[in-house]
Amino acid sequence: xxLLDVIPNPWLDxxxxxxxxxxxxxxxxxxxIWYERKLIGRLQQRLGPMxxxxxxxxxxxxxxxxxxxxxxxxxxxxxxxVYELAPFAIFVPAFLGLVAIPFTRDWAISFMSLxxxxxxxxxxxxxxxxxxxxxxxxxxYALLGGMRAAAQLISYEIPLILAALCVVMVTHTADLVGIxxxxxxxxxxxxxxxxxx
Length: 197
Description:
Elements: H1 10-43, H2 59-68, H3 80-96, H4 115-121, H5 127-136, H6 140-171, H7 176-182, H8 188-191, H9 193-196
Helix pairs in contact: 3-5, 5-6
């Protein structure tokens, strides 16, 4: 089960898969932000982004370039490394959760027999980044806000895990390919409507 049959090295195969996933995620994020801005513009009886590129398609890209060029401010008493690494501690676990998701029956970055547990466990670590951001800023209110956000994330994990356990009880597997294949007969929403809700 390799990404491309022409790439014999599994490390190279994983790197090509990750680069492809980052490219697709970036393009999808750009498009979704553009679409949201157009939709909100319509709801507010205006056009939304129109001037940058055809139909305003490049507006999000221009905004990203502008954001990269802005000055990076940090509080004078902040812990530099904790403060700077906090966004990465939020983003990286969420991104690593996509590693186990199979996009087709034969294409994924990594096929895992306990992929569902991995997908639930690894992105759940992003609360550490929220605590880092609050702690690193050396501000008691930011720390309280980071602790509150982390507590919310952890509390949302409990019903999510219980719903996932319902899926495992029905399908008798935690393999994401197995769960998807099992739904070829009857969708899981029929068997577990409460877990879906």
